[in-house]
Structure formats: structure tokens, C-alpha cells
User: Fold this.
Amino acid sequence: MTTTIIGTGNIGGRLAANLVAGGEQVLLANRDLTSAQKLADSLGETATAVTLDQAVDQADVIVLAVWLDAAKELLVQYGDRLTGKILIDPSNPIAPDGNGGFVKTIDAEESSGLLLAGLLPTGATLVKAFGTLSADTLATASRRSPERAVGFYAADDAAAGATVARLITAAGFDPVHIGGLDRSIRIEVFGDLHEFGALGRAVSRAEAFAALAPLTAADRFEIFEQLTLHQRRIDNDASRASVDKYVDLYWPEATFTVHDLRTQTFTGPEGLKNLYDYAHSVFPLDKWFHDVGWFEIDGGGDSAVVTWRWRVNWKEGNEGVVSTGTYQDRFERRGGVWKVIERVSDIDPNWPATLFQPYVDRQDERFTAS
Assistant:
């Protein structure tokens, strides 16, 4: 997807640098094209300066890295030309208070995210993101090690939220979904999840979850049930009826990355059906079955992260466990339902080479859903 940043000031410029460092190609626009060109020149060939009209027409995702009033003007100016676009709002409605501090320019209980959402043309979607941290912190906390700093986002549209979460990752942060746009005020200036609010700094995922509403025992049980169903359904027969039950454990835009004989990423329902066929080709049901090992569940609000062990047991000759590995999962709750939005599988280096050599020999072959 093509990403445009409108606004080349502190936030827009820093975000552009982070995205370019993460391998993204970005278009840069400003009412003054000269400033956009200067920033593009400093970032290299993956950044391109364009006019505002070009920015709107060529982009799939548009970051409105401008003041709130300017963002309102852009929504009015371009209107229906924004249909089908994902708009990202990092705005913080503040102004100097005359005493060395800042004051909100809208009512204390109002959210700039909700105000802009009310101005969207039909068919455009808005995600609140990239405004929780100052420009300085965006620079210093990007790709922080060993634990990445969190980038909070609020979204009503799941697919748009997933797109923005990918951009947050590319910018060097760990995406955490706090819920819908009705919660935007929490990640705007003075909000409880803002650097210039209750948090006071960039935080890790564990610290972010501690600040969100903690997971209940019922949440944890529902997520564990999902882990169990994953292994149970992967061991069903290879029919399309069974694969549909397996795919239903994931949100429609979910990704599953597998690191075993080769690295592959499976995306969306059709990709997950390919994964299902891949699993049955490597682990024929007459020989193996899957099992759940230890697991850890952490999270808050509508987000959870799960680390858990998988085991493959060989039924022939009662051989026992022949392979093990770890899943790293990201769950989201939507409409009261928990499902996987991102899963990564890492195999332990204990596969019997002779047992799996036939699949190594065929590693250029694509396993395609029937």
C-alpha cells in the first residue's frame, strides 16, 4: 500500500524517517512543496515529495501530520476524493497557555479523533495513531531494545487497524490496540495513555497492558480455549468443512508466519487454508497429532499476547514427541470475541532430518488449498 504523510513538521518528519528506516516507501506532502522536497532529499530514494493533490490521489493511507484545524480543512477540501482511503490522525489539540505549558483547544472531554471521524466522507476510515509520543521520543524510542516501546492505536475498522498496526511495527514500535475511536481521548495529550498524560514516558508492552483494563479470568479462559481448539482443529481431516472451522479461529486479515523447513507467511482465509494443507502434507494424520504445552497469557483492554508451546506426537510405534516449537500470538477482542490477528511459529532445532528430508527436497513446491 502507498503511504502519504501530509505535514513535514516535527511529527511528520520524524515519522517519515522511522518508516523509511523500516523499509517503507513514503510520499511526503506539504502546502509548501519545497519543505517536502527537502525532507525527501534527506531521507533518500524511498521518500518522494509530491503535491497535496498527488498525495491524496496516489495514497492508500494518509497520515494527517498537521494541526487539528488544518486536518479539518483537508477533510473538507478533498471530501469524496478521500473515499476508500485510510486516514491516520496523530493530532493533539493543544496550544501554548502563556505560562510555559499547554492547554487543550477543545473541551476537556472532547477528542480530536472523534471530531475528525465526524467529518469523514462516506467510504473513508480513520485510525488514531502516532500521536501518543513526542517527536523527540519518536526518534529516541524507535526500535528500542531489548523491549520495543509501544505505539497505541484506536480503530473501529478492523482491516484499517491491521494496516496501521503494520505501519507502527515498521516505524519501530510495538502496536497495541486500545479499542474503538470512542477511546481516542486516552491516547491524546493529557490522556491516561499519552506521554504527556498519566504514563509520562514511552512504555513496554507489559507496562501498557498494566495501564489498560486487565484481562479477567474469563478472558484468559476464552483465549486458552482458542489455543486448544487450534490444535484440535488442525488435527481434523483435510476437508473444506474442517478447514473452515480452523480458519474461523482467526480474524479475516490475520497473518501466520511459519519458521520451519522454510519461512512462509500465510495471510487471510485463503492463506490459512494453504497453511492447513501445508500442515497436513508435513504431518499426515495417520502418523502424527498435535498437542499444547505450557503457555503464558498477558494483556489488557482488547489486546492480548500469548506465548505457548506446541508438540507433535508420532503415533506409529508409540514413538512419542518428535517435534516441538513455540507460537507467539497476538489476539484481539472484537464484539466480545477473542481471535488471533497475528501468529508466528518457531520450530525447535530437533527435527529428525531423515524423517523430513522428503519435504526439504520439495521445499520449492507451494502447498495450495484444494
